[in-house]
Amino acid sequence: MKNIEEKKDLRRSHYDIREETESIVMRLEMPGVNKSGLNINVEGDKLVIDGQRIKDTKKGDWLVHEIHPGDFHMEYTIDKTIDRGSIEAALSQGVLTLILGLSEAVKPRKIEVISK
Amino acid sequence: MELTKSSPRKAPDSWNNLMSLQQEINSLFENDFFPASDGLFDRNYSPAVDVVENPDEYLVSCELPGMAEADIDVQVTDNVLTIKGEKKNDGTDTGKRWYKRETWYGSFQRTIPLPSGIESDKIRGELENGMLRLTLPKREEVKPKQISVKVK
C-alpha cells in the first residue's frame, strides 16, 4: 500500500453503495483508469482501492484545467458481515463495480414454520 | 453492516459556493475565449474538461465515466464545441437499500467556445475508460509559421 503522506495528489472518486439481498454492491467512477492501473486489496478490515490513471501527455498551453490529475485512492473499513472470499470486481467505461458477498451468518434465511 | 470511510470528506461549503458564483459572474465580464470554470448557462451537471492548445491543434479531454459512445454527441458549429450526452441509469437501483449515493444520471451539456481557424472536418474523438479525448486541428493559415531570414 502506498503511503498517503507520500502521495498528496490523490483524489477520491464519486461512488454509490447499495445493498442487495446477498451482497453489497459498490460502484466507483474512475475515469481514465484501465484494468492494469487498478489495484484492490483487502488487508484485515481494510478495503483499499487504488486506481492509477493513464498519464496525460498533452503538451501546450492549458486553457481550461478542471480535471484533477491525481490517481484515485479510496479506503473503506469492512466488518465481519463481508465474506472476504467472495469479492468480485469489474471495470468498464471507467466505472468500477465491486460486489462484496455477505457472509453466511448475515444472509437472510427463510425459516419454515411447521404447523402441528 | 458497517461501512466507514477513512478518507477526508469535503463538506458542502456555502461560502465557497458564493465565492465561485462571484468568480463566474466576474468571468462573464472578462473577454476570455474560454470559460474560467463551468459555464454559467450549461445544465447543472458539468463533466470536468481540460483544454490544451499547442501550435498544431487543440486537445480537449472530458471525464465521462459510465457512458458509451452512443450516449455522447459531439458537435462543432461555427466556433463552438458542444459536448452533449445522457448518462443512462443502468436500471439496478430500484427498491434497494442505499448506503451512499453520489453518482448522477441524466443529461448534460458542455459548450466550449473556440477561436476561429479550426479544421472542422478533421476533428477526431475517442472514448476510452470513461475519458473522451478530442483533437481539433488548426487550419494551416492559423498555425504559427517560422520564416527563416537569410542573412547576407
How would you describe what is shown here?
The complex is a heterodimer of chains A (116) and B (152). The N and C termini of chain A lie far apart (59 Å). The mean pLDDT of chain A is 85. The radius of gyration of chain A is 19 Å and the shape is elongated. A four-stranded antiparallel beta sheet of chain A has the order 1-2-8-7, with no helix packed on it. A three-stranded antiparallel beta sheet of chain A has the order 3-4-6, with no helix packed on it. Chain A has strands spanning 15-19, 23-29, 33-43, 46-53, 61-65, 72-78, 82-92, 95-102. Chain A is built from no helices and eight strands. Chain A has 116 residues and is mainly beta. With 152 residues, chain B is mainly beta. Chain B has a domain at 41-89 and 103-137: Sandwich (Immunoglobulin-like). Chain B has one helix spanning 14-29, and strands spanning 3-5, 49-53, 57-63, 72-77, 80-87, 97-101, 106-113, 124-128, 131-137. Residues 32-39 of chain B have low confidence and may be disordered. Chain A binds chain B through residues 12, 14-20, 24-25, 27, 29-34, 54, 56, 58-68, 73-79, 81, 93-95, 102, 106, and chain B through 1-7, 33-35, 37-38, 48-55, 58-59, 61, 63-68, 92-93, 96-104, 112, 127-131.
